[in-house]
Structure formats: C-alpha cells, structure tokens
Here is the input.
Amino acid sequence: MLEKSIESHFKKRCKELKIFVAKNTGMRGIPDRICVCNGRTIWVELKKPGEKPKPHQEARIRELEKYGAEVYVLDNKEDVDVVLEHLASHEKLR
Here is the structure.
C-alpha cells in the first residue's frame, strides 16, 4: 500500500466526519495535515505502512508535543479511522 492510498482514505474520512483539514505547504518538518473539529486541533503526519518520520520531522513533532499539541503519525487506514473518529467524537486518545 502506498502513502497516496492512505492519504486518499484520510481525505475521504475527513469529509465524511466534517473535519476541517489544512495541508502544510512548506514549513520543514511540520506534519502533513492540521485537522480541526469540535474545538480541537490535531496534527497528522501520513506515512506509507511501516515508514517512520525522518529525524527532522521527529524533532518537529517532539517540539509541537512540548507545547501540548496532539500529533499522530499514521501509516494505515485503520489508524486513520481511529484517530479521526475520536477527533469527531470530542474524545482524546491520549
């Protein structure tokens, strides 16, 4: 499965769940997507199955988390569903 397939599923689910999504357009290391729903904001880095964030991405993720941000690295459709459904339901995963 390619990252593109996961990204397509992600977009479809965001639309179904009425989640606002903005795409990162250039800041190095920032996760791919910012998602907003029900007063919550999360950051999402999409990867192909088994792929991990690069060191500069990992550093930026840790920086965001230091400031209290929720950041998720998702590499499969099932995890996309879990994270987005929790966002849409007002619940936090962590």
